[in-house]
Amino acid sequence: MPKDGGIGAATTRREDVRFLTGKGQYSDDIRTFGECAAVFARSNVANGTIKSINTEAAAAMPGVLAIFTGEDFVEVGGNPAGWAIVSRDGEPMKEPKRPVLAHGKVRHVGDAYAAVIAETVQQGKDAVEAIEIDIEEHDAVINMADALSGTNYVHDEIGTNQCFDWGWIEDNRAATDEAIKGAHHVTTLELVNNRLVPNAMEPRCSIGHYNTGTGDYTLHTTSQNPHLTRLLISAFVMGIPENKLTVIAPDVGGGFGSKIYHYGEEALVLAAAKKLGRTVKWTSDRSEAFLTDAHGRDHVTKIELAMDKEGNFLAFRTETMANVGAYLSNFSTATPTFLHGTLMAGNYTVPLVYVNVKTVFTNTAPVDAYRGAGRPEATYSLERVIDMAAREIGMDPTELRRKNFIKPDQYPYASAAGLEYDSGNYDALMDQMEKVSDKAGFAARRAESESKGLLRGFGVNAYIEACGIAPSNLVGILGSRVGLYDAATVRVNATGNLSVMVGAHSHGQGHETVFPQVVAEMLGIDAQSIDIVHGDTSKIPFGMGTYGSRSLAVCGSAVVRATEKIILKATKIAAHMLETEENNVEFNDGTFSVAGTNKSVSFGEVALKAYIPHEFPIEAIEPGLEETAFYDPANFTYPSGAYCCEVEIDPETGKVSVDRMTAVDDFGNVINPLVVTGQVHGGLGQGIGQALVENTTYDDDGQLLSASYMDYTMPRADDLPFYTVDHSMGNACTHNPLGVKGCGEAGAIGSPPTVVNAVIDALQSGGKNITHIDMPMTPHRVWSAMQNAK
Amino acid sequence: MTTISMTVNGKTISENVEGNTLLSSFLREDLRMTGTHIGCDTSQCGACVVHVNGEAVKSCTMFVIEADGAEIGTIEGQANNDGSLNVVQQAFQDHHGLQCGFCTPGMVMSATALLKDNPKPSEQEIREYLEGNICRCTGYHNIVKSIMAASGQDVSKIAAE
Amino acid sequence: MYSFDIERPTSVADAVAALGSEDAQALGGGQTLIPTLKQRLASPSALVSLTGISDMQGTTSEGGALRIGGATTHAAVMAGASSYPALAALAANIGDPAVRNRGTIGGSLANNDPSACYPAAALASGATIITNAREIAADDYFQGMFDTALEEGEIITGVTLPVPEVANYQKFVQPASRFALVGVFVAKYADGVRVAVTGASNEGVHRWAEAEAALSSNFSADAIADLTVSADNLIGDLHGSPEYRAHLVKVMTGRAVKAAF
């Protein structure tokens, strides 16, 4: 093992030093000489026809440099959806144009219809107030069921509010219907997966720069995937050649999905920079973020579970309406379909699954992937209906799950929802969960809660998810318009230190610490001599970015492949230096040696030789030591887990507190347990937030009621407990070189149903016949359910 | 314009400012100390917490004119004189009390203010004290743990890894 | 924010004079006003900061009452109201620590947010609101949501709260803002019990007369067991219906009585 920690070491994070001393460099921290400000004029109505926009008075105001409206972008392209979904009837999905600035109509509160470029933000805001817009307001399309049945359209040109009507697996539809019809027992549950606002703590920020001398554009932006942003701007929106556009995502303050996507503001600052020949900066405030960042979840689902009389699962069938908001954001069509329907067999040997998803346009902010992206929705539906079914048939919820688990000897396992799971052991996870959570002590803890007048419940959950989003061949068949590999370049400098350029982007995940652990382990050198370079399209070969818990599984694998190439070439050089054949050279702990002799050279000496190739076999080996690899995996990775939670409920007020939360996950091999544990913690915080406090509410007019932290409840430190996190039960992924699975989203996937199941358990223990409460289970909702229950 | 003077991390500053300049804007824009962050506009997220005369204050909700004559402490002034991380900062690194780093300056400044008044806070006291600091990455577990560790408490019994 | 100047008077007289100019507005701790200004929902020509007026700072015990200067921060009340522990406890639970280091009691009372904590304490204590011009009984001062008896340019220089035998404030928080979804302040005096409710009503802070009568004759949670709170004219929003708030008024009142010390 390298001296300061290789694979498996809980190395503390090197990036922390700059963040802890105020030396992080986030986009808004960048200031450029001569920069000016972009301020957006945003619709305060949800649905309206733009009759006229008069910018004359605004243009004459102090400091105003330019004003853009939708008219200025009619000739350029639109921001596309990344996945093409085909409806059950064979029709392609409806794809209305998403323009840089609204043109003709405004379609949600916050939809930008103009942008002022001014010397200062204040002057820009003054000018925005002076823009005269005449909007003919229409009724807002908000409720999804009404949207599907009505004739008031968000996009008149497509003549429907339905984007697509998708069936998965359509060939199984009839058999699933038949199985449910003939089943001994069918449990039916209607539920809402509540709409969330991602709320990365750093608001979005974009800075456009244009060099009039070279025609080069540079965009600094808060992005999880700068290459994808460049690709979208170049190929679809503005037509800027990729070689003339550099996209840089410096330190980014969290993303959770919301910063995957390309947003109109990015295109606008580039267009303005070109027009003015000046650097143009826009920083969102939190109020704008609530209105314009892509939201998450927002499904309304009916799920049915059919069982035989022993409790064996026969079929799952779901009908879901999924909100896509006013425009299709880049991943919005993949999230409710292939990231959701394919997981609807869960951890179970159920033979039949049929998923129907209708996606719906509404006059609300776009909805797209948010931490977990489709898998939390699948897990929530499954694990709630299973819990309800267990209670209906009088079986312990854990036992019902165990009865239907896929067993360890069944891998690879072809699930009824179309995926091939590579590895897992769900019973072992459940055993470990019961152990580390002290499930045995629950009865005593319940008695103690009851003695204080509180109800206590125990909730359990088993999840599987598909992450490490890739491979290209598979996602291509499923409708992806991009490939989902990743890339890395390992550059060994002459003096033996390394720069590793990676396509993944770190905005909290700790890549700068973890990726060097991998390389250090492979090369047997000090991790501190390895630096990661990310987030700059001019410095790294390519990359699809960070989302879908893919950084290590996909990009980390590319790093491994590139490092293997380095070793291969370095071995050739070493063989030359050691005057032997390559196959006689062994490489261990940073030293190349000749078997059975005391002849050796260090990795550093080889590196130097590569760059000072005196007496070098130039005809056989090129000078230099730098290798690039693109890695496209064979399959998703399939983390799984067993979670449990204990809640206390104050029956007088309905307030729920999570007292204990345990997450036992199978992430395969773990490179840095400190970082992995942190990722799980964060997911748990967000999942508990979804279950108990977070909700996004529009009124019937399309006004966002939960539009600030005054009304959108962010989980605080005193809302959450210490968590018990265990990932000792990993089964290595069978198809990537590190044997790793993704860990970034697990906590947010596994926890919401766990919490809800615990609340239902608590309420039933108090004698209330309550079988379901929609999230978030606020005090008001829980109290109301208790009032209405027998 | 009004002329104000103050010390920031021990250094005397004198500047002309507009009346409506917030302390946070002054630090970020005028002094180019961008460690103080802006995460909301309703005075709730706490990414902007600094010390004014030793007390935690949301710098986005105070006019700089009102800090005339005050001693201001920011994240940039927290490290030891030799540049190494101070006890609170070091505890955050040791216990992975940060991920994206955006809320971190406010967390450190709040934690420091807490420990000044309450050198051995309980878990519950820490959680309550952090009511005005929102983190979206960590689920707070390691933040609370870091602060307990910074106060010299044994955190080895706190769950996992 | 629009542009404006900030005046920093050091005496009440200078502050009153400064507030005489058109569209000038008083600035306390700014914890509500500054976010409002950021949203461009107010456009004062000048802000008159009251926090530099030493006469408006601090807490003093006067006979059986506690006098608090209008510019005293919540943190200072926490530390200085030892003679009125229920009030100190209330102050310790307003907002968060950083907000408590800036926000002032005068600012809170002048704003009279329907979900704020101090109005409940002032009303339940039968406090006297002292301004640069006069003294106003709490019963006359609070006139509905964001509405008070203050005249244009009038400054709250202090508030005097008679210290009760026992008292307690129970706050059930609105989970996002951490203001009171419902807050109830119960104060027992020799001549009777006063109960003030915040967070619940479209009319702002108000007294609950039936509970006061019942608790005055029998200061125990049982005394209010048979009372019901009407949901009429209570607030209904994202966080709770009028019926839920009505229920919480009773629950919080009972808990305040039990916890009173």
Task: Describe this protein's structure.
The complex is a heterotrimer of chains A (790), B (161) and C (261). Chain A is α+β, with helices and mostly antiparallel strands and 790 residues long. Chain A starts with 15 loop residues before the first helix and ends with a helix. In chain A, the strands form seven sheets. Chain A has a seven-stranded mixed sheet with strand order 3-5-1-12-9-10-11, sandwiched between helices. Chain A is globular, with a radius of gyration of 27 Å. Chain B is α+β, with helices and mostly antiparallel strands. Chain B folds into two domains: 2-77, Ubiquitin-like (UB roll) (Roll), CATH 3.10.20.30; 87-150, DNA polymerase, domain 1 (Orthogonal Bundle), CATH 1.10.150.120. Chain B has a five-stranded mixed sheet with strand order 2-1-5-3-4, with helices on one face. In chain B, helix 2 packs across helix 5. Chain B is elongated and about 55 Å long. Chain B starts with a strand and ends in an 11-residue tail after the last helix. In chain C, the strands form three sheets. Chain C has a five-stranded antiparallel sheet with strand order 4-5-8-6-7. A four-stranded antiparallel sheet of chain C has the order 9-10-11-12, with helices on both faces. Chain C is α+β, with helices and mostly antiparallel strands and 261 residues long. Chain C is built from ten helices and twelve strands. Helices cover 30% and strands 23% of the residues of chain C. Classes of the chains: A alpha+beta (790), B alpha+beta (161), C alpha+beta (261). Chains A and B meet through helix 1, helix 17 and strand 28 of A and helix 2, helix 3, helix 4 and helix 5 of B.
Structure keywords:
heterotrimer; A: 790 residues; alpha+beta; Aldehyde Oxidoreductase, domain 4; Aldehyde Oxidoreductase, domain 3; 7-stranded mixed beta sheet; 5-stranded mixed beta sheet; 19 helices; 28 strands; 23% strand; C: 261 residues; Uridine Diphospho-n-acetylenolpyruvylglucosamine Reductase, domain 2; Uridine Diphospho-n-acetylenolpyruvylglucosamine Reductase, domain 3; Enolase-like, domain 1; 5-stranded antiparallel beta sheet; 4-stranded antiparallel beta sheet; 10 helices; 30% helix
